[in-house]
Specification:
nine-stranded parallel sheet; mainly alpha; 938 residues; two-stranded antiparallel ribbon; EC 4.1.1.31; globular
């Protein structure tokens, strides 16, 4: 008789019973697959490790800790791989079950007819209506707004597309179990679930070759097929329904509005990635166009099959008659079916367009030859002809099933799918301009000029009609590559439309000259015509470090005051975008200071832009972790200072967060809706900050400034001023192993050094997540609050902090995000990673400091919020995190054991020994599993 399978989660409230059942089912099926594929011995080992890890966590039992160490040390290398895979896949399956439960709860909420949930567009519209915001204001807002999630590829993306595809199938089958199924259908469903889990088990989780930029592009495009292409148009439709319902009128007609648009950095982001060039930009935009045109071709083909309407039954408009007459279809069988004939002709034109734009494999051959569409607007106009004819001839209901979504998609995605941003660091621009100036005999040593002289020279060159580049000179590879990029941008815009590329982002913007340099480079290829005051591509500064954020307002004030720039900004619709970097500012100054300096920079920018009469659009470079600006997007947008949203917002979606948010269509639509709802509220809700409220806010901001300075000192003292901290970090986290993992096309460090200053912020945060310290998301808060409170008396200062938490969204969101990080932090697990530091004195000294700050942070957080338990206000998330620990903890313990083995072998290899690739593979598998278990660690 089979042994009972116990890969299941304990506890939970009644309303989570279906979630427990799903996790129990998936755990049982995974256990069955494990036993079938690996045998009873491995299954028993997995269970023993799990139970021992639970005892270690629950009882802080040192005996359990010793037993666990012995168990792990005794594992053979092959067993270790199997055990790591088992726990990793359980984390993946638990994520699927949770996503399904979120969808289930939302449907139940809707069926119950309850009030719209917070974060929904319905909830936002209700608040706006109650606050006196009228319907016309809302509709005007949506016609002019731009809300743009921007997908980026970063080295914490741990999912292979093959894994994502299998998990998508498992999610679909799990959702199917909520439907009424016959006994036979239930058995079939179970068989298919087990088959898909077996497929997962037999699929390689990791990449054995380095991920290329082309691979990253394809990975991102898979989310369009899963979610964006259908869910984004559907969301637009939902929003129009909600406006009609909340303002008691007919559904508005906003068909040509495109207030949510997609963006991408993948293939255009060169900062720190030598693998991105003009060819990757061309490839990215070609694949974007091919993806959206494939979608249009499928939809038009399906629409042709559905619209069998005959002129023997109903009339059509003259425009529809003309469209049908232009068709390439001459079949007598469809002589009375104008819609089919028209759509066959439209299909032929789309196919021709696809070939022109780079498609090489169109699955269905078109009927006859047709000229390609000049642009997406022509295609959209033909769809409008079809819709108008249906509407005027008793066919309005025929628009709803497919045509409405296709029309909406044409406005949202065009032929370009997503806008591709260009990004490069300011140092590269300076080197390129220095060479161009030298070769043109304009300036021998541009880089050595003071800032004022640089600005004068750049402005003078912008006014010159001639280019600096000469085809008769020889330039460095770097200069040739950078010029090829801007030439490619011009070609791409001409070929795919002006929305295909419209932004150039400058990393490490430190001065006005950094912006002017890019303006001049764009002028070299005609993308800037300064005499006419026209820039086809917007030049966007990225302020990243703490000093950069502090200078941002002054730089933008000086930039927009320059006469040629003033004209350009005017011709951009008096709009200028500014990007703020969360990752580097956090690595530079710590969690509290980063958040505060970002807030301060935004306030200063609002003031500068208001005085200049220019609309500000902020681009938030948020990462997955709280330490990199992550956390719930809805709360983050609402916590922005007044005047910083105003219907214009872009934000990055990075790493494994893309999979977490958008690999399930329903979850994806919900995340897109959250962005729209938060932008509506943040932009249109009245802000009352007068009199006493304004004075109170000023007090709160003054307190925050003092806390920030103290936290900055504590963080910098540990990370940058403590002797040996770098050695501790590289030994006590898997940063070296992460750098070796084939996660992305971008190197983990900007330079080949062990300096933390040169390490990219993404692997910095990812490493702290893996060892369960998540230090960038909380360090410095405890000592800052304790020090500030210590200078006061009689609890008055604590009362001020408590008021800040209750009444200031910025501070409340900051503490909420830190609360989530602390719920995932585990000092006992982290202590095992600290054991990897060979220098015992260094280990004790630094870990003791971190542990003391952690204890103080918990103590002060509890004092301010009044909550003794983590995530007291979010019990669903608290249960989710608790349920994962039984499977997550063993992965951490296994990772420590594997790193210990790997580094020991590396030392012996230096003396002539051999390395075992299985150990290396096991570490990388554990990294994948921990990232999946924590969900937002990148």
């Amino acid at each position: 008789m089979d042994k009972p399978v116990t890969l299941e989660t304990p506890g939970g409230a009644d309303k989570d019973a279906p979630l427990k059942e799903d996790i129990r089912l998936l755990g049982r099926l995974l256990g069955d697959v494990l036993r079938d594929q690996e045998g009873d011995t491995v299954f028993d080992v997995v269970e023993t490790i799990r139970q021992t890890a639970v005892r270690f966590r629950r009882d802080a039992d040192p005996v359990a800790g010793e037993e666990l160490t012995t168990l792990l040390h005794k594992l053979s290398r092959n067993q270790t791989i199997s055990v790591v895979r088992a726990f990793s896949y359980f984390s993946h399956l638990a994520n699927i079950a949770e996503d399904q439960h979120h969808n289930r709860r939302r449907r139940a909420h809707a069926l119950a007819g309850s009030r719209p949930r917070e974060g929904s567009v319905g909830h936002a519209l209700g608040k706006l209506r109650d606050a006196g915001v009228d319907r016309n204001t809302v509709e005007t807002f949506l016609r002019n707004a731009l809300i743009a999630p921007v997908l980026t590829a970063h080295p914490t993306e741990v999912q292979r597309k093959s894994i994502l595809d299998a998990e998508h199938d498992i999610a679909r089958l799990l959702a199917e179990r909520d439907l009424p199924l016959t006994p036979k259908e239930q058995v079939r469903n179970l068989q298919l679930l087990q088959a898909r889990i077996a497929t997962l088990w037999q699929t390689r989780m990791l990449r054995y070759t380095k991920l290329t930029v082309a691979d990253e592009i394809e990975n991102a495009l898979s989310y369009y097929r899963i979610t964006f292409l259908r869910e984004l148009p559907a969301l637009y439709d939902d929003i129009e329904d909600e406006i009609g319902a909340h303002y008691h009128g007919s559904k508005p007609q906003l068909g040509d509005a495109a207030y949510v648009q997609m963006g991408s950095w993948i293939g255009g982001d060169r900062d720190g990635n030598p693998n991105v060039n003009a060819d990757t930009m061309r490839h990215a935009t070609m694949r974007h166009a091919t993806t959206i045109l494939d979608f249009y071709l499928d939809e038009v083909h399906a629409l042709g099959a559905e619209l069998s309407t005959s002129t023997l039954m109903v009339d059509i408009t003259p425009a529809m008659q003309t469209l049908a007459a232009r068709s390439t279809d001459a079949s007598e069988h469809r002589a009375d079916e104008p819609y089919r004939r028209a759509l066959i002709g439209m299909y032929a034109r789309l196919a021709a367009s696809a070939r022109v734009l780079g498609a090489t494999n169109i699955l269905r051959k078109e009927v006859g030859h047709a000229e390609p569409y000049a642009d997406a607007a022509e295609f959209a106009a033909d769809l409008d002809v079809v819709a108008e004819s249906l509407k005027l001839n008793h066919g309005a209901m025929l628009i709803v099933p497919r045509l409405a979504g296709l029309m909406r998609a044409a406005h949202i995605f065009g032929f370009h799918l997503a806008s591709l941003d260009m990004r490069q660091t300011s140092d590269v621009h300076e080197r390129v301009l220095a060479e161009l100036f030298e070769k043109a005999q304009v300036e021998a040593d541009y880089a050595a000029l003071p800032e004022e002289a640089k600005v004068r020279l750049l402005l003078a060159e912008l006014a010159q009609p001639r280019p600096l580049y000469s085809p008769y000179e020889t330039y460095t590879d770097e200069t040739q590559s950078e010029l090829a990029i801007v030439r490619a941008a011009r070609e791409i815009r001409q070929r795919y439309g002006t929305r295909a590329i419209r932004n150039y982002i400058i990393s490490h913007t430190e001065a006005v000259s950094d912006l002017l340099e890019v303006l001049l480079l764009l002028k070299e290829t005609g993308l800037v015509r300064s005499s006419a005051g026209i820039a086809d591509v917007m030049v966007i500064p990225l302020f990243e470090t703490i000093p950069d954020l502090q200078r941002a307002g002054d730089i933008m004030e000086a930039w927009m005051a320059l006469p040629p720039v003033t004209r350009i900004v005017h011709n951009q619709g008096r709009l200028q975008e500014v990007m703020l970097g969360y990752s580097d500012s956090n690595k530079d100054g710590g969690f509290l200071t980063s958040n505060w300096e970002l807030y301060q920079a935004e306030l200063k920018l609002v003031d500068v832009f208001e005085r200049a009469g220019v609309k500000l659009r902020l681009f938030h470079g948020r990462g997955g972790t709280v330490g990199r600006g992550g956390g719930p997007s809805y709360q983050a947008i609402l916590a922005q200072p007044p005047g910083t949203v105003n219907g214009q917002i872009r934000l990055t979606e990075q790493g494994e967060i893309i999979a977490s948010k958008f690999s399930n269509p329903e979850i994806g639509r919900r995340n897109l809706e959250l962005l729209v709802a938060a932008t509506l509220e943040a932009s249109l809700m009245p802000h009352a900050a007068e009199g006493a409220q304004a004075r109170q806010l000023a007090v709160f901001e003054g307190v925050m400034a003092q806390l920030s300075q103290r936290a900055y000192t504590a963080y910098r003292d540990l990370v940058y001023e403590t002797p040996g901290f770098t050695d501790y970090f590289f030994a006590a986290t898997p940063i070296a192993e992460i750098a070796e993992l084939n996660l992305g096309s971008r190197p983990a460090s900007r330079k080949s050094t062990r300096r933390i200053e040169d390490l990219r912020a993404i692997p910095w945060g990812f490493s702290w997540g893996q060892c369960r310290l998540l230090l960038p998301g909380w360090y410095g808060f405890g000592s800052a609050v304790a020090g500030w409170l210590g200078e006061g008396a009689d609890g008055e200062r604590l009362a001020t902090l408590q008021a800040m938490f209750r009444e200031w969204p910025f501070f409340a969101t900051l503490l909420s995000n830190m609360d989530m990080v602390l719920a995932k932090t585990d000092l006992a697990i982290a202590s095992r990673y600290a054991g990897l530091v060979p220098d015992e004195a260094l280990r004790e000294r630094i870990f003791k400091r971190i542990a003391a700050e952690h204890c103080e942070t918990l103590r002060q957080l509890e004092a301010v919020t009044g909550a003794k338990e983590r995530l007291a206000t979010n019990p669903l998330l608290a249960r989710s995190i608790q349920n994962r620990f039984a499977y997550l903890d063993p992965l951490n313990h296994l990772q420590v054991e594997l790193i210990h083995r790997h580094r020991a072998m590396a030392r012996k290899a230096g003396e002539g020994g051999d390395m075992d690739p299985r150990v290396h593979r096991g570490i990388h598998l554990s990294i994948n599993g921990v990232a999946a278990g924590l969900r937002n660690t990148g």
